[in-house]
Amino acid sequence: MAELNPSAQQPAAGTGATYKAPTPKPKQNPALRMMGLPNLPRKLPSRNWLIFWAITGSISAAIIYDKREKKRATAKWKHVVAPLAKDIIPSASQLPRKLTIYLEAPPGDGLRIAQDHFIEYAKPVLAASGLDWEFVQGRQQGDVRAAVAEKIRRERRKHERPDEEDLQTDEAITESLRKKNQVPEYEGVKGDIIFGRHTWKEYIRGLHEGWLGPLDPPVKPEPITEPVEADSKTPKAEGEQPEEKKEGKKEEEEKKPERPPQPLPYNTTADYSIANLPPQIPAEFSPANPIPLPHRLGFRHTLVRLNRFFNRRKLADEIGREVAAVCFANSSREWREADGQYEQELVLRHEEKDWVKSVWKPEEPPKQDDDNTAAAPTEPPKEKIWPATMVVDPRLAQRMRRFEIAPEDEARASQIKVPEAEIEGWIKGSFRSLWNYTVESVTAKPMKPNVGNVDSDE
């Protein structure tokens, strides 16, 4: 009998191929199909993609977490010092408390680095406290030393030489106007904030120079010059000389005013022991707190810089605590002494390892060409404060003070909970503001005319 379904017959044995029905397409999720999205992949990415996304996600998570916690630490200390901004000054003519901020360019870099460090970590806390402050900034080694010493010498001249007129600077003019208008000065504790080990060493050096040094500047050595040999070349024509003079005048006019030279130190560290204290020296100096300023340069230190970059939250909490202690000024202590060394010498010493090698190299004398027979005037070399060992006089060390955070302020800071809206990023903050706007627009009542109380007889 013939078979009813010839299409279902088995293929011939000699063909060598079998027929397979095509596999149906996987059914797509209806929700995804209506949204226009393709099918989700049914297998994991490759090994290389998994490694890439794992590393990228870990680094991104570490950066985001550290940034949030840094904002949280700064915001916590902002809330701690915020009540100080509500304190009322007793009189309208009374001057408020003013702090002094000392900034200087770190070794091997510019002043902008120190300014950005202050703006990022310290300025939010100071602004929240409502206190006033002034800057003493230095662009090169020795500027802060000269400023601190000159400030102390001005105070000494008022008592030791009252008849001598001082230079009319902006500060002197402002002070004379306040005396004329009978504006009383602030009589409380002020305070100094010093950023970085390099600035701290200059601050200590200027403190000793101002109180232990003389009031008169040292005598400058006379410049020693060698006679200039006459030019053996033939003189130029008379017509060319006026042109050279005109060019020289133009160059002088185009030159910008140069920066005033840095004043030389009035004494050395070897003069501390033989110097006498001024009679009007206070029993206690204004407290000063050094603030860390970690700054390391170089490709070899990439791992150290990355470690600091991922732990900025700890630095923000440390700086916030020190700045808050200065703002409150509730308690101050003496600088301690351990193992025959003063605490002033040991504070922030670890930052010296971050300095560039050029700081530790001795300065070489300038070389002169063989053709140049004229010698430049000899000037005393600038004092190298950064690489030198810090020398502290015991008479001044016992007068120095340092602010510290009070236990009650520390306990109050630990209980503060920072709102999430203050530390969230731009993306989350945008969604939060959009949600708040939507809720307010839905729940807000329509505005009505304010007609007052209709039932009232008035």
Automatic annotation (TrEMBL):
What segments bear the compositional bias annotation Basic and acidic residues?
A: 230-259, 359-370
Amino acid composition bias (Polar residues), ranges on this chain: 1-12
Judging by the UniProt lineage, the source's domain of life is Eukaryota
| Bilayer disposition of the protein | Single-pass membrane protein
Q: Which UniProt keywords apply?
A: Membrane, Mitochondrion, Mitochondrion inner membrane, Protein transport, Translocation, Transmembrane, Transmembrane helix, Transport
Q: Where is the composition biased (Acidic residues)?
A: 163-173
- Cellular location(s): Mitochondrion inner membrane
Alphabetically, which GO biological process terms does the record hold? protein transport
Task: Say if the entry is tagged with keyword Metal-binding.
Answer: no
The segment annotated Disordered runs over 1-33, 153-179, 216-273, 359-383
The GO cellular component terms are: mitochondrial inner membrane
* Keyword field contains Chaperone: no
One Pfam entry for this protein is: Tim54
Can you tell me which family this protein belongs to? Belongs to the TIM54 family.
This one is known as Mitochondrial import inner membrane translocase subunit TIM54
